[in-house]
Amino acid sequence: MAVEMGLWRAEGDKLVRIVPTAIGLESQLESYIESDSAMLGTTLLIVGRQVPTAHGGYIDLLALDETAAVHVIELKRDKTPREVTAQTLDYGSWVATLGRAEIHAIYDLYSPGTALEEAFAERFNETLPEEVNAAQVFTIVAASVDPATERIVRFLNEDFGVPINVVFFRHFIDNGASYLARTWLVENDGQTATTNAISSRKTKTREPWNGSDWYVSFGDNPGGRQWVDAMKHGFVSAGGGEWFSRTLKNLQPGARIFACIPKIGYVGVGTVTGGAQRFDETAVTIDGAAALLKDLNLVGNYRHDGDEDDNLAEWAVPVEWTYTVPKEQGFWKTGMFANQNTVAKLRQQFTIEQVSAAFGLDD
User: Fold this and answer.
1) Is the pLDDT of residue 199 over 50?
2) Residues 349 and 247 in one domain
3) Could you tell me the pTM of the whole model?
């Protein structure tokens, strides 16, 4: 059923209907959406405007949501309703072929000098996911559509789960003030229309891993492990439960690690020199000689209740540090990579570049 929006001004006991006008609206909507994408019902980060496709034509707006799905936003303008529906799907078929690098390139043209990772973190207060453009959402912006277009969009959305919808805006002027009213063709709850990535496309939508760089979360805690020990004696450690120590065992000799203290920042970059072992069995090199960590004069405490059990024990990996800074000088920049796991593959080139520059590793 066609969507109808009405607006009335209350004057005492009477209602006076305000007649909508579409004059100039569609030419302004692109700028309105760009300035406040929330008018589409969900928070978005605009990454491109008038984006040229490989097959001719220009996408009005491209955006990312908090899951890093790409939203294709098309205004009806002077196109017929059926044209804009077909065109939106055609643009979507092209967008679906874009890898993470292409999305970065589009944003670089849209906002030169601002890293996509920084902009994403500022907008959503979240790190840019490893998967970018694993899913697409299509939104047609219009003042009205014909019955055939309504049937097509509902058929695709409701019967086949294609994430396409129409958002209607009507423009009202009353006593010199302008108002916009919004509604959706298919009920929209503000949630992302699709969130599942397509596994076969991960090589394009995810940043490639160089095979050697790892993120390590070093939990510096009062009364527990201390970064000053790790920095001085050359190791990283985790424990107190299998969940904390399990990923530490993924580190192999020769791997490069970027150590980060949660909520503080990156504090060291180094090379792994040995496999993971229980802390009390791990040896490091001190003045050219091997020494067990448990025999060193350590500031921190690396014991856990019940740590006779390997799953509850502290585990450590010996590291030859390339560069370290004290905890108080930890380096952090909005948009850099962080992870709840103790160890994770560091794919995000933005973090590698920022830390390398801050620590002078590029030299």
Assistant:
1) no
2) yes
3) 0.72
